[in-house]
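pls read this stuff:
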Amino acid sequence: MTRPQACVVNVSSMGAFAPVPGQAVYGASKAAVMLLTEGLWAEQRGTSVAVTCVFPGGVATDISGHSGVPMPDVASADEDAPTSMTSPVEAARRIIVGGVEEGRFRVVIGRDARTLDRLTRLAPRRATELVARRMASLLDR
């Protein structure tokens, strides 16, 4: 608050947009990051502090390989699904340019995240059903 300009950037996830079977706690924590960031933005309106929430989709960091959690091959489940991953360099560029330099309220990274963001805004139940169907193999039933 004492600086001429400042920026808070919190990283949520496209997991905040729609629930993923077996990952309810993860999604809830990412939705909490989203709401916390939006609350901070509202509290900092009119000050020198910009606040941005980032929603990355798939970023090619091999997070699933390092997590120890097997992930299903969702690309083969739907031929029309956006499956390309964003490079870490491009994701960082989008955060810095879109989030910090442009002071955006939200930065949604990747075609997958943009698609899910739009779908959850237009048809939330349909988005939930789509994600549940495509990711059903995450549940041990």
